[in-house]
Design brief:
Largest sheet of chain A: 7 strands, mixed
Shape of chain A: globular
CATH architecture of the largest domain in chain A: Alpha-Beta Complex
Radius of gyration of chain A: 19 Å
Number of domains of chain A: 2
CATH superfamily of the largest domain in chain A: Medium-chain alcohol dehydrogenases, catalytic domain
Largest interface: A-B, 40 and 40 residues
CATH topology of the largest domain in chain A: Quinone Oxidoreductase, Chain A, domain 1
Strand content of chain A: 25-35%
CATH class of the largest domain in chain A: Alpha Beta
Mean pLDDT of chain A: 97
Oligomer: homodimer
Chain lengths: ~350, ~350
């Protein structure tokens, strides 16, 4: 089968690889209907994370072709979405809603391919009612649910977005944009998108942003405070992962408010005195997408949300290297790959 | 009147000072029935904070002697407890329960004296039903409510202590001990006190601790995990303010759990990757004692709780320097000063 490999930073190829098979009784093998490139794939691409001949991809939607003996909730022929975090969905941590930190957990890997093996299939995959959708937009939205939508959603939940709340979102990548969609769906009153890209601003508004702040850093914080009676937003989602973005998020949040951070932290250090003095709530990490997946799938099938709109470039799997370049250069928000 | 002044680190005197008067229409003057030395007073005493001729003390209980023209909720003769944080208790931040970050806020100061001026009297002071209590134990407990009980309580609330929860408390000073009492009152199932002092362990057990862990740092974390099926506590209160204590608190908390930190952060830096990877909730800062004060006063008057037990040394105000020495050398948990 064809699969995407990152040989080194900036060096992505599509190559032949062995088709995966069942190796644990809890595994399933899926034939991918679509995969995509994640913002987090850019960390190794840009050399911020070590990488050497790594099979790429952790977002996926597709048809089950084979299951291990212990798998009971999915069967060959089922059309499924799975979380990028593997989980048994039965341990105490999973039951508390943190499937991203399951005691038997891990991460899906190698989904930028024709087939992928998913461990912990029972606790990770969710069957899509009605099977594979005919509408490619619905298919793209289901793919988004696997990580980018679920991550934006978790950011908004961690920031306690909801009725009566003003929510600010730091980061206008796909996760930030979908955090806006989530904040809107959760009933937030006002949503401030922090973005300086016209195309992304337009999508932010379409997803529910009521205000746009183009300034960054301290100036961005000042602007958010001006929009919120000098107090700051009730809820702030951080969807970048850098020191500047985290400081901007904490700065833009009012005391007693909530910062949800879902950008993968890189070289971020937070002074205890800042956290003590601001007295915000801080919560984040890899999104427990499995917690939200049944609800998100239903909202997509009901055409209530259309998160697949973040895919503004669709390429055949063989063109994956061009997809990485487009995202790296911010020519594309998010790239869908068709095996 | 007599008042305690810290001239420099380690140098505390009791001296004559002007009796305070009303300077703003929102002020009240209080004749103190009791005051005390706070663990946070040890930061400047030990030279970790700058200090020069500072009037000391921010915990207080006493009788109102005078009020400004704008004060309506307390009057001369009322016996009151106030928060160490000043608040108008009407702004949006106060209404959200964060009176410690009131837009018109500040901190009480100079309560280790015979009289003190309290700004923002209406929003800061709470009248004790029934007036000054005859029982000195009740008086001591009301004094504790002003900060140390309120702070321990906030730590437990921030850590979401409650029914079904295992709560670990890092720090066996008065705040840590009262966080144990709070965790118990809030219905927690199991409470792990981290302490290596026999006397403090005894009080911890009296306040509700079910387990004692004497180990610190990584060993302490390992021990808490052993007691919690390898997962860590649901809730952890940090009541020290050092890097080691904060790391111990985060380490001892399970993923998805809550760390409430109320130790005043000194030279603490938290790696974003640790917070992302552990996926705990983190919340803390100066306690919004005013939020809890009416409830705490009632629990004290009902003899449901006896937080005044943390005062294991009672001295006349003139002996304040000895009180500071006793707390610095950990000979006393907390010192009550009688003007």
């Amino acid at each position: 089968m064809r699969a995407v490999i990152m040989r080194a930073p900036g060096d992505v190829i599509v190559t032949d690889a062995d088709r995966p098979t069942i190796s644990e009784p809890t595994d399933a093998v899926i034939e991918l209907a679509a995969a995509c490139i994640c913002g987090s794939d850019l960390w190794p691409y840009r050399g911020f994370d070590q990488v050497e001949n790594r099979p790429m991809g952790h977002e996926y939607v597709g048809t089950v072709t084979e299951v291990g003996d212990a798998v009971s909730s999915v069967k060959p022929g089922d059309f499924v979405v799975g979380s990028f975090c593997l989980s048994d969905n039965t341990c105490e941590i999973c039951e508390a809603g943190y499937q991203s930190r399951c005691v038997a957990g891990g991460f899906a890997n190698g989904t930028q391919a024709e087939f992928v093996r998913i461990p912990q299939a029972d606790g990770t995959l969710v069957v899509v009612p009605g099977g594979r959708p005919d509408d490619p937009e619905v298919l793209a939205s289901l793919l988004a649910a696997s990580d980018v939508l679920g991550t934006g959603w978790f950011g908004a939940v961690a920031a306690e977005a909801g009725p009566g709340k003003t929510v600010a979102v730091v980061g206008d990548g796909a996760v930030g944009l979908l955090a806006i969609l989530a904040a809107k769906e959760l009933g937030s009153e006002r949503i401030i998108a922090m973005s300086r890209h016209p195309q992304r601003q337009a999508l932010a508004r379409e997803f529910g942003a009521t205000d746009i702040v183009e300034e960054r850093g301290d100036e961005g914080v000042t602007k958010v405070k001006e929009l919120t009676g000098g107090l700051g937003a009730h809820s702030v989602v951080e969807a970048v992962g850098t020191q500047q973005a985290m400081e901007q998020a904490i700065g833009a949040c009012r005391s007693g408010g909530h910062v949800g951070f879902v950008g993968v932290s890189h070289d971020v250090t937070l002074p205890g005195g800042l956290l003590f003095g601001k007295e915000i709530h801080l919560h984040g990490g890899p999104a427990p997408v499995r917690r939200f997946l049944p609800d998100l799938i239903q909202r997509i099938l009901d055409r209530e949300i259309n998160p697949g709109k973040v895919f503004d470039l669709r390429l055949p799997l063989d063109k994956a290297p061009e997809g990485y370049r487009a995202m790296d250069e911010r020519r594309a928000i998010k790239v869908l790959l068709q095996p």
